[in-house]
Amino acid sequence: REHAGADGDVRAQRAADHEPVSGLGGRLRPNALAVLFFTTFGMAGSCFGQSQKPCLAFLLKGDVTVTCESQKAQITRHGDLEGFAINDERAELAYTTSRIVKRVGAVTTSADTTTVVELKSGTSKAVDGISGIVSTCGGLFSANTRGAIPSVRDPATGEELSFQPFLWFRCSADRKTVVGTAKNPGGELYEGVPPRTKIADVGSFDAYSFNISNNGSKVAYHDGRLCVFSSPGPPQCVEPQGSALSDTPSVNDLGEVLVATGTGEECFYKSTYNFSSQRAPGAKADECVGIGYWKPSLQSIQIIEPLGRSPQWINPATAELLRKWSAAQQGGSAPK
């Protein structure tokens, strides 16, 4: 998709509504990673180091799903979500959707909306013109990844966040540790205000897909490889074993990373974020995207969810709030 506007709120999209759009370039390699997938998925419960009961959220078939204490729960019931973020500190969920507002020939124009939910009260607010959302700096902020001027703004309060000279940045929950790049679409990746420690060279990392842990001690990014930086460095990296990486990684204070990655299996895409291993009318084949887990002591990325995108670490208390909010939306009680 191509953004048509400085705020990234209107996009022109090819009219091929069901074009395979996994983000991995359509490089389907049937069974190329079959051995990796079937051997590592069974290890999911034992490979985590953060907690005996790790919790994560991710997009599955266009909805937010949470896995916690070996239980999986679907949180939203939309089927068309294109992004989301969850903030533990403020107990908030935000998700993005788009709608077609104009169609001219082979091009459609879409407008974006982000909805922010306060999980404890259940109140929500919809904000137009925000095409991406991230959990960083102790809150939820816009992350429009295309446009003349990057915008980092709290969609609920309107607070504009700035750390000069950075244009693109992420920071710890207390906002004392900042990483970012001072050029658009990307220069060198630095830590510190003013910039002190260079983490990655210009052009060697995805300027839109880096992240920092809650306490600011770990930075994750991908440059074709998946890398974790901890001061004073150097970064520790792993090759994705033939499959491309996608979306922004999530890293915790122990340096454990969640990332969307190709699995080598075949999926059928209704949209970029709604896909399945089952054939569906109008859906076209492309490589499945699943959730990978990695930490520097592992030799390879472990596939822990066969399908999913945009993974994020969350704490158990937030996971429980999400389950209760979801049950309330459905007029029931949270599953036990």
Q: Can you describe this structure?
A:
Strands 1, 2, 6, 7, 8 and 9 form a six-stranded antiparallel sheet that branches. This protein has helices spanning 34-40, 44-47, 316-329; strands at residues 2-3, 10-14, 55-60, 63-68, 71-74, 83-87, 92-104, 107-118, 124-128, 133-136, 139-142, 168-171, 178-181, 189-191, 197-200, 210-212, 219-222, 226-229, 236-238, 245-251, 257-269, 275-276, 284-294, 302-305, 309-314. Mean pLDDT is 82; it is low at 1-20 and 26-46. The protein is mainly beta and 336 residues long.
**Overall pLDDT level:** 82
Beta-strand residue percentage: 35-45%
List the helices and strands in order: EEHHEEEEEEEEEEEEEEEEEEEEEEEH
> Mind telling me the C-alpha Rg?
19 Å
| Unreliable parts | 1-20, 26-46
Distance between the termini: 41 Å
Structural class designation: mainly beta
Global outline: globular
Oligomeric form: single chain
Q: Into which percent range does the helicity of residues fall? A: under 10%
Number of strands: 25
The major beta sheet can be summarized as: 6 strands, antiparallel
Count of helix runs: 3
